Amino acid sequence: MTKEGRMTSRFQLHGSMIPRSVKRMFDERSEERLDAESQTAILSFRGRNHIVGLVNLSRSGAMVRFTGDAHIGESVSLQLLDRGTIAGQVRWLRDGRMGVYFARPLE
Prior knowledge:
Layout: E1 34-35, E2 40-45, E3 48-57, E4 61-65, E5 75-80, E6 84-94, E7 97-102
Antiparallel strand pairs: 1-3, 2-3, 2-5, 3-4, 4-7, 5-6, 6-7
């Protein structure tokens, strides 16, 4: 409730709220993905840092292992060992993994 006594609600979008009834048969992404299974990174959001495992990495984003409480559309940053820190946004969440879309492409 606000000071004026009005009810307020903050809508949060979670990956489980967007059903996918059919598994993708094709990888429609055109970018090459680099396997990054043995690498770790630091995911930062809401003022906290989380050590995450990288699954793959492309110029425009990354897939990381993360089971915390993040929301689709939330702003995050990802500190990559050999590329520094890059700002991004949560694009999807599923089965303990997160897709992060970078604000600018990696060099």
